[in-house]
Amino acid sequence: MKNINWYIIKQLTVPTAFITFALTGVIWLSQSLQFVEKLINGLPVSTFLYLSVLLVPSILKYTLLLGLFFGTIFAFNRLYTESELVVMWAAGLSKWSLTKPTLYLALIVTIILYVFGFYLTPYGIKTVKNLKVEWRESLASVVLREGVFNSLAKNVTVYIREKTSSGELLGILVHDERNPDKPITYMAEQGAFIKTDAGPRFVMKKGNLQEVQKDQAKLSILYFDDYMLDVSQFEKKTSARWIEPEARSFSELVWPEDSQKTRDNANELTSELHQRIVLPLYAIALVYIAMAGIMSGEFSRRGKVNKILLSSSSGIFLIITAVALFSTSRSNVWIIPLIYFIPVVATVLAAYLASGGKIILSFKKDPSSILPAAGGAD
To answer: Which residues span the domain enclosing 25?
Structure first.
């Protein structure tokens, strides 16, 4: 019996891994495009890859469920069409005993999803969001863009002609017109944008500073070999940012900080916590729905196309329903009991059909009294 369990698990693992990998890859590529502009503008490739990998856990929480569901349908349909299941039934194995390997794999997926949901996914989302805020509010994301007139602040424009692979800036122009009566223009052949303990600085070499005094119609030019411009005054001050529910760890959801915004969004925090608890349970419901499409009813040489289509539709409908309930529960917490009720009911009904109408709770002994109706070929 153990050999059969391992054989079925191996048959399930390959299509599950392939489908999960394919779905995750497609979504990952689309999500990674948000970092392409940063990559073009100088973001290190290692950082790009690191941020892209951080997106994977949040994608896997659904693609792994879909991969397990369709992988189970594919594997058992192949075993069915090649009459391997018929041989197993003829050997005295019950339908319920043949569902055990899928349950074992579903439990493994459930544990993985809990690890993702409570640790890896919020860490990845939080890290990506923090870096996005840093890029948006940091001068580095603006100044280091080459070939573009960038607005640092109101009436302050910066232009960089070229940036070398070593980070050196060529063709620097900074025009400061915050004082309309005395606009200042800095020009330099080369330089670098650096960050110091005192704040960001522009280090410019071989350039000049041009100041116009409009009231006197006077132009003053100062040539320099080295000049350091303090640009910290242009940088936005980052204030303490409220952590979104999806970016919070388990402890931050259970014991959130005491603030007015937290109290205003208490329902969202509660909903997010219950979503992470219940979502992995859908793995068990989905494998039994997949099994029900193959195992229910009598053996047919024509296959079970209609039942497989019905099973596939039911599984997709269950996931769509779960996503809709998750979204609705953020504003209506009374729906939370429903998100637990649906996967439990779906699991019991699908397990009942997959096991041939009987569910045996013991995993120690395979009851020989439950035999499938394998002889009723139509």
So the answer is: 2-137+243-354
230 within some domain: yes
State how far the Cα of 290 lies from the Cα of 348, in Å rounded to an integer. Answer: 13
Alpha helices (H) in 82-219, listed in sequence order:
84-90, 95-115, 121-137, 140-143
Q: Is 365 exposed, middle or buried (0-12, 13-18, 19+ CB in 10 A)?
A: exposed
Per DSSP, what are the bridge partners of residue 188?
A: 172, 207
Domain shared by 214 and 81, yes or no:
no
User: What whole-number distance in Å separates Cα of residue 144 and Cα of residue 141?
Assistant: 6
Q: Rounded to an integer, what distance in angstroms lies between the CA atom of residue 109 and that of residue 280? A: 8
Residue 91: name the closest of 376, 330, 372 by CA.
Answer: 372
124 and 8, same structural domain?
Answer: yes
State whether residue 109 is helix, strand or coil. helix
Q: Are residues 92 and 368 in contact, defined by beta-carbon separation less than 8 angstroms?
A: yes
* Closest by Cα among 343, 294, 287 to 68: 287
**What is the maximal distance between C-alpha atoms in the chain?**
107
The dihedral through the CA atoms of 249, 255, 261, 267 has a sign that is positive
- Residue tagged 């596939």 (tokens): 312
Global pTM reads 0.69
pLDDT in tens, 301-348: 565 778 888 889 999 999 999 999 998 988 888 889 999 999 999 999
